[in-house]
Design brief:
D-Maltodextrin-Binding Protein, domain 2; Arc Repressor Mutant, subunit A; alpha/beta; about 45% helix
């Protein structure tokens, strides 16, 4: 936490989440510690700030008043931090990032390469969720920046380009289709297909893009559905079938030669990965510097990914 009043920060987190448990997770505190801070604040004001009924809580009238002031006070703390850090030339603080699964597991660690060397006084906290939850956390101010696949329709959310992610067909090295530089759609349709489970963002994109190319998902020869990209890659390596995954997730396999990546002929399978953040929310210097650094890294990674697919197709 920053130099601001711990009790106020704890109260604000509980009021935003309307949950002691989720507030404790957000603040990296135990639930008894959160309860203790709230009790101290209520004793200070000599009034209840939350109504507790069964397993739910809500703000009292006094709690609503404190919440309004807490929001303004914490914003002033952040502005003070930024002003002093800019005067001293030091970037410090915590940057809370929310990312969807593929980004969080495969892309984000590469974006952070060299980050700590440049910003040793900044702590990064990453939470991995689906896109819908990432946007909700932005709205709740639980995170500072999100990284998601595809468009976000929310007038209060600003989007900035990160990179274009390509989805590619993966095959074991001895598969007959590896002899082709690009796979005809009709040939791909005949192959046993290993799919991500229903509800996966990657599956939704694949369904949409293949549908636009004239191949509805229900016409795929889907023989297996799996819950993670790692399990999908393992199944393909084992010869179960072929699949489609993000090129971002294939760095190790392409380098070791355990999988081969191919494009489907005349069917572009691409999606945009974007940074998202609140339009009106004040951003600290640490957040602004993270965005600059990450955008530079994304440009470098875009070039690397193009080289990877070219090498795999040669």
């Amino acid at each position: 936490m920053s130099f601001s009043d711990t009790r106020l920060r704890v109260f604000y987190a509980v009021a935003k989440q309307l949950s002691f448990t989720r507030a404790a997770e957000e603040l990296y505190l135990t639930q008894p510690a959160v309860t203790f801070q709230i009790r101290q604040l209520e004793e200070h004001f000599n009034t209840r700030l939350f109504d507790r009924h069964h397993n739910r809580i809500s703000l009292t009238e006094a709690g609503e008043v404190v919440f309004g002031y807490a929001e303004r006070i914490l914003e002033l703390y952040r502005e003070t931090d930024k002003a002093i850090n800019e005067m001293t030339g030091v970037t410090r603080g915590i940057v809370k990032i929310g990312a969807s699964t593929t980004i969080g597991e495969y892309l984000f660690p590469r974006i952070l390469s060299g980050y700590h060397d440049n910003f040793p006084n900044v702590q990064i906290r990453l939470s991995v969720d689906n896109t819908r939850l990432v946007v909700r956390k932005l709205e709740d101010a639980t995170i500072d920046v999100g990284m998601v696949e595809g468009p976000v329709k929310n007038k209060n959310i600003v989007t900035a380009d990160c990179l274009e992610d390509e989805l590619v067909v993966i095959l074991p090295p001895d598969h007959p289709l590896t002899k082709m530089k690009e796979i005809p759609l009709a040939k791909f349709k005949e192959c046993p297909f290993v799919s991500r489970d229903e509800g996966s963002g990657t599956r939704e994109v694949i369904t949409d893009l293949l549908g636009q190319a004239g191949l509805p998902y229900d016409q795929l020869n889907a023989i297996l559905e799996l819950g993670t990209t790692e399990s999908v890659k393992g199944a393909v390596e084992g010869g179960v079938g072929v699949s489609i995954v993000s090129i971002v997730s294939l760095r190790k396999e392409l380098k070791l030669g355990t999988l081969v990546a191919r494009r489907i002929k005349s069917v572009p399978l691409k999606r945009e990965i974007r940074f998202v953040y609140q339009k009106q929310k004040f951003r600290t210097k640490a957040v602004e510097e993270f965005l600059k650094f990450a955008q530079t890294q994304c440009q470098r990674l875009s070039e690397e990914m193009e080289i990877s697919i070219q090498d795999s197709s040669s």
